[in-house]
Amino acid sequence: MHRILFILLLVACGLACNRADDPLPKIRLTYSDSLYFKVPGTALSTDPVTRPAEAGYFKAIPLGLDIDSLTGRINITESEGGIRYKIFYISDDQETVLDSAKLVVSGIDYRDSIYNLSTAGLLFATPIYNADPTAVLPCADDDDDDDDDPTNPDDDDNDCEFDEKDTDDDGDDDLPGVNGDGCKVDVDNGVIDLAGSFADGFLGNNPTNGTTRDFEFFYRITDASNRNLQAITVRFYYYNTAADIPASLRSELGNRDAQARDVLMRNRDRFIQASLMATTGFNRSEDLMRLARDITSRPKRPPIIILVGR
Questions:
Q1: Region Disordered: start and end of each range (predicted)?
Q2: Which CATH code fits 26-107+251-300?
Q3: Residue-range domain boundaries for the chain
Q4: What is the average pLDDT across 152-160?
């Protein structure tokens, strides 16, 4: 009898010890929301709600997110809008990515693209709202009265405004706007008329191969941002033919595309892809270390639009 009790005590002790040695449940990296809006007169920031228990630091892709690498606090107000970001929590020894989270800072963006001016029909660059190509801008129809009435709050003052010239919203224009410089941005929906802009000479009357120019314009959107004033710069290039586009510029477009896929991909997918691509002699720990160290924040801005003549 004593022998049986002794065995039972050993088994109970063993189970308790094993239970104590079990790893703690993994704590995910989370923030309070997945979409944040900048609002007028408010300094908005957000901290992680939960984070893995292991010691580590924070890193985000692409460039543009104002994040504290030690605490994970994000300054929404100072971050670039219109971009989807991925925040990584990386172990202090840089051996592995412990977890990641995604969020969007509201605003507009344009797709990095190549347009052929010899293509039949009109060419337009359409804004992407909140990093979602399927999302519709919450703007009123563009057939309303252009003469805003400051005494009527239901008038056009509540509509979206692109190429905003009245930056302090006092009823008087403070800037000439990019439309006056030939960059034809639809003031109601942000669509850029590329063929019309080129014909208007926004890159010069006779642009040479490799001509480039940046245009910055301001905008307001009738959404949860409460028409907060935002800005975006778009970079335009001109080349005579697609073959004239430098390899370095094509590589930049490829890097941006790869980074966008990394933002959408889960960590395990990234590891699986790396495993499949690894050469003979693959070492998992070394590969995880390389992946953690190779998380490189590349620029997403300004959006690049390349026009080719033929």
A1: 136-180
A2: 2.60.40
A3: 26-107+251-300, 109-248
A4: 60
Which positions ≥6 away from 293 have C-beta within 8 Å?
Answer: 94
Residues comprising the chain, all counted: 310
Please answer whether residues 55 and 40 qualify as being in contact, where contact means their C-beta atoms are separated by less than 8 angstroms. Answer: no
Tokens of 212: 């480039």
Strand bridging mode 161-162 / 211-220: antiparallel
Handedness of CA 128, 130, 132, 135 (dihedral sign): negative
pTM of the shown model:
0.82
pLDDT at site 297? 87
